[in-house]
Q: What sequence folds into this?
């Protein structure tokens, strides 16, 4: 797919809230985003991790319980009270507005109805100030949640690093709460296809779907693993990744107020 066409498709997907945005937990069998039943099989075959133990306990569910709706994404503790996730997880398509922070909670090390610890979201930061309507480009699909308690102290938090070139891609995995298995943390391999890239984003082959939005891409060469990207969305062939080095560079330049 030419880069211009990919960018247009991602832009339209962002405006629509992405196909894999907020996974409705009441939906028993949400469709897999990439491809056909084979893609669902890949997701079912992902390894289930024990989220009660580190480093997995630093990953958790970003939950929203609003008026007549419940949904979740995936997030990662990168500091005692900061969680990295996808910005579109915080946007309500139906209300055409950003979700108030008090409606969002983070459950660290969540599995099968329990969590290592949890906290409410006090505020969150976006790449730049936006009004009520979605106005972020695909490379800006990230957010940092500020929690009302330092849950990263008991659960742990993960360092961030650079997304390396294809030579290191065999060490990359995605860790998320897929819609097919919303109550367990599962991981699957990520590989980088040759010759596919775009300004501000990376495209990887990862088994991913709704509920995985905001999931970390982990470099398992390190101990603890490095968070090198987050899942933004998917095309019909690839997972769209926001490199974390882009996020940290932008985060340092943010001067506007957080959303409460």
A:
């Amino acid at each position: 797919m030419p880069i211009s066409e990919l960018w247009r498709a991602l832009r339209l997907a962002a405006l629509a809230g992405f196909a894999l945005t907020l996974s409705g937990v009441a939906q028993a069998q949400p469709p897999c985003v990439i491809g056909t039943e084979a893609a669902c099989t890949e997701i079912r075959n992902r390894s289930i991790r024990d989220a009660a133990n580190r480093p997995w306990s630093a990953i958790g569910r970003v939950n929203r319980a609003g008026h007549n709706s419940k949904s979740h994404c995936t997030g990662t503790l990168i500091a005692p009270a900061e969680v990295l996730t996808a910005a579109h997880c915080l946007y309500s398509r139906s209300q055409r507005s950003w979700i108030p922070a008090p409606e969002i909670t983070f459950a660290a090390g969540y599995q099968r109805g329990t969590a290592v610890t949890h906290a409410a979201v006090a505020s969150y930061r976006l790449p730049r100030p936006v009004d009520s309507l979605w106005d972020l480009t695909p490379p800006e699909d990230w957010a940092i949640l500020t929690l009302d308690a330092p849950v990263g102290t008991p659960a742990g938090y993960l360092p961030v690093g650079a997304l390396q070139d294809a030579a290191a891609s065999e060490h990359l995995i995605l860790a998320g709460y897929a819609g097919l298995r919303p109550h367990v943390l599962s991981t699957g391999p990520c590989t980088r296809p040759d010759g596919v890239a775009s300004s501000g984003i990376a495209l990887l082959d990862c088994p991913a779907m709704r509920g995985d939005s905001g999931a970390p891409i982990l470099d398992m060469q390190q101990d603890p693993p490095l968070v090198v990207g987050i899942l933004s969305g998917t095309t019909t062939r690839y997972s769209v990744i926001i490199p974390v080095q882009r996020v940290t560079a932008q985060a340092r330049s943010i001067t506007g107020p957080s959303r409460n």
